Amino acid sequence: NLDRAIVALDQVDLAAEETDLLRYYTLRGMAHLRRNEYELAADALESATETGAAESVVYVYLAQAYFSLERYRDVLTALDRAGPELARVASIYHMCAQCHWLLEEPAMALAVLDQASTVFPEDPGFQRRKVFFLMDLGLYQEAAEQGQEYLSRSEGKLEDYVGLGNAMRASGQLDEAARLLEFAKLKYPTDTSVKKVLANTYMDRESLNAAADLVLEASLFDRALTSEAAELYRRAGRPQRALMLNGEVQDQEVKLKQRLALYLETGQFARAATMERDLTRLGLLDDEDIRYALAYAYFKTGDFEATERQLQQLTRPDLFRKAAELRSAIQDCAEDTWQCL
Question: Of the chain's two ends, which shows fewer C-beta atoms within 10 Å, N or C?
Answer without folding.
Answer: N
